[in-house]
From TrEMBL:
Residues 213-347 form the GGDEF domain. Residues 356-614 form the EAL domain. PANTHER family: BIOFILM ARCHITECTURE MAINTENANCE PROTEIN MBAA, DIGUANYLATE CYCLASE DGCP. It comes from Amycolatopsis deserti. InterPro entries: Biofilm_reg_signaling (IPR052155), EAL_dom (IPR001633), EAL_sf (IPR035919), GGDEF_dom (IPR000160), Nucleotide_cyclase (IPR029787), PAS (IPR000014), PAS-like_dom_sf (IPR035965), PAS_4 (IPR013656). Signal peptide: none annotated. PROSITE patterns: EAL (PS50883), GGDEF (PS50887), PAS (PS50112). Residues 56-127 form the PAS domain. This is GGDEF domain-containing protein. The lineage of its organism: Bacteria, Bacillati, Actinomycetota, Actinomycetes, Pseudonocardiales.
């Protein structure tokens, strides 16, 4: 029997089980009573299950409707059947306007729609439980809004059915912050150009093994930018840099170039494609012309110039370090050549420079290993050529591979590598040691030693103390030392050469000035130099090598007359023959050196010369 209102299916189940249990041994209840008990049990079980289902449904509905993220549920085909308020609010639509659309249609553009389609396909075809990505969803105002989305599937009403669900969280602020941080990490904050890090990354990419074609790298440095910063202030300097950045971007805009700021006033341009040096040079010349036009900042019309180093080559001709080094070298040459111009990298010139730089780097080891020696050039009195007036001391390098190298080949490199002072000290020390040996052997008949101090040593604060220490160590009077200089050294703006020479003259050393004309000679009274000897050099001496032209002779006479007025002793260098020496003597030159005596002499050779001349003087 069944209870009124009970579900027929439930009553039939209860009746069948009651009949079966009634046939079981040990059951004493009649079938009707047993059926009622089972019916009550089943009804209670169903009621509890339905209550649990209803509670779960209410919880899901509440969570779905109040969730702080947008949710869209679709049927198995991906058509949206339900949308919560948050998703409607996020996308600017009423929820009912989104129902009936496909989940993939929520993307902002084709790329976003493709991402959604890919996620749904992966859920359907794999064991993936969820798919997550950041995409732009279409907003009602035709804009795209960034969302962090999760796609998953929920079981349906029928067994085996699964329904796609999209959950979307607002990612606009996070995405904007990430984009801002990404932009700041690869761009220069002042100019907005790419920074050095991004520039190098893209340069590496441009030179990857798969790259083809040509590449051009241009390094640019503003000339004298410190003057702008110091004269007008850092604020104006920053504005100038922004103006320069704008001009560079415009100058290379049509060529898909990457323009970057590498340092304070250093910029770089990277071009790729089918390029030739003339094409790139034309672009750089245009850019330099544009930069030369004043940049107006308030009431200031600031003019700037730039130097540029250019490299154009095939992408397979070396790596990043090679092309960067080439651009730096070309830029350095442009600045050395006078600034405000460009210089194209020259591989052959670079090969020669590499050899020179290697030579400069070897100076320290060569000095330590005894590869330098003193060489001498004796100066004789023209009235008595057998009498040596002084000996000029210099350095020569016995290079193990290149042979004998004169001072003019390595002293400029020593300036670059910081070895000028050690070389100059060694020259001074060894020269005075030799002078002490001559004076010990020949007494007052021994010649003075004359040293041309390198400029860097001449401005060394410890020079005076150094000279005095070496004179004292060798027990030499200061008058035994002659210090030779020239007009360029006296006028050198890098240091106080004059002060050093004046103090040394006060100690008793003799100052010698090399002159080539009247202007050089007039430096003596102009700067009140304590000069006692002048050495005529260059054209004024060379003009009398093969004869005695009237104009040259007149010029020589004028110089000698003026030197005598200044109470100076007059010598000459570069004298090639006895005939030339005689012509100079007749005009008033009292001493000379050059090939007519000896071009150069080693220590042993000069000892023999001094001995011969001393013996000749005594005999005479």
């Amino acid at each position: 029997m069944s209870e009124p209102g009970a579900a027929p299916g439930l009553a039939d189940v209860a009746r069948r089980w009651a009949a079966r249990l009634a046939d079981t041994d040990g059951v004493s209840l009649p079938p009707e009573e047993l059926e009622q008990l089972l019916h009550d049990f089943a009804r209670n079980a169903v009621a509890e299950a339905e209550a649990a289902r209803d509670a779960a449904l209410r919880r899901f509905t509440t969570l779905y409707s109040t969730a702080p993220i947008g949710i869209a549920m679709a049927d198995p085909d991906g058509t949206i059947v339900e949308v919560n308020k948050e998703l409607g609010k996020f996308l600017g639509h009423r929820p009912d306007r989104l129902r009936g659309r496909r989940l993939t249609e929520l993307g902002f553009d084709d790329r976003d729609c493709e991402k959604l389609a890919t996620g749904l396909a992966e859920l359907a075809e794999t064991d993936l439980e969820e798919f997550a990505d950041r995409v732009r969803l279409a907003h009602a105002d035709d804009a795209g809004v960034w969302a962090d989305i999760v796609l998953t599937r929920l079981p349906g009403d029928r067994p085996g059915t699964l329904y796609p669900v999209l959950m979307a969280a607002d990612a606009n602020e996070v995405h904007t912050l990430q984009e801002t941080l990404r932009h700041q990490s690869i761009h220069d904050s002042l100019t907005g150009l790419s920074n050095a890090s991004r520039f190098r990354t893209l340069l590496e990419s441009a030179l990857s093994p798969s790259a083809r074609g040509q590449i051009a790298l241009v390094y640019l440095d503003l000339d004298g930018f410190k003057v702008i910063n110091d004269g007008l202030g850092a604020g104006v300097g920053d504005a100038v840099l922004r103006g320069v950045a704008k001009k560079l971007k415009e100058a290379f805009a049509e060529h898909d170039a990457l323009v970057a700021r590498l340092s304070g006033d250093g910029f770089a341009v990277l071009l790729r494609g089918e390029l030739t040096p003339p094409q790139v040079i034309a672009l750089v010349e245009t850019a330099l012309e544009d930069l030369a036009e004043p940049i107006y900042i308030g009431e200031h019309g600031v003019g700037v110039s730039a130097s540029a180093g250019i490299v154009v080559r095939d992408v397979r001709d070396g790596g990043v370090e090679d092309i960067e080094r080439a651009a730096e070298i070309a830029l350095h040459r442009a600045k050395e050549a006078g600034k405000a111009q460009w210089m194209l990298f020259d591989p052959e010139l670079d090969a020669r420079d590499r050899a020179r730089y290697r030579l400069g780097a070897e100076i320290a080891g060569a000095l330590e290993n005894g590869q330098f020696e003193l060489i001498y050039q004796p100066t004789v009195k023209l009235a008595n050529p057998d009498e040596i007036a002084a000996v000029n001391a210099g350095l020569r390098w016995h290079h193990p591979e290149l042979g004998e190298l004169p001072a003019e080949e390595f002293f400029p490199l020593a300036d670059t590598t910081g070895m000028t002072i050690p070389l100059g000290k060694w020259l001074l020390t060894e020269s005075l040691r030799a002078t002490a040996r001559w004076r010990e052997r020949y007494g007052d008949a021994a010649p003075d030693v004359c040293i041309r101090l390198p400029n860097r040593l001449a401005i060394e604060p410890d020079l005076v103390a150094m000279v005095k220490e070496e004179l004292d160590r060798n027990e030499l009077p200061a008058k035994a030392l002659r210090l030779c200089t020239d007009s360029d050294s006296i006028l050198d703006p890098r240091g106080e050469v004059l002060d050093s020479l004046t103090v040394l003259a006060d100690l008793g050393a003799k100052l010698v000035l090399t002159v080539q004309g009247s202007a050089d000679l007039e430096l003596i009274p102009q700067h009140r130099l304590s000069v006692q000897h002048v050495i005529l050099s260059g054209p004024v001496v060379d003009a009398l090598a093969d004869g005695e032209p009237e104009i040259a002779a007149r010029h020589l006479d004028q110089l000698i007359t003026r030197a005598r007025e200044l109470k100076l002793r007059i010598g000459a260098e570069g004298v090639r023959s006895h005939e030339q020496a005689e012509r100079l003597r007749r005009h008033g030159v009292i001493a000379a050196r050059g090939a007519f005596v000896a071009e150069t002499a080693t220590g042993d050779e000069v000892d023999q010369l001094i001995e011969q001349h001393t013996d000749a003087t005594v005999t005479g």
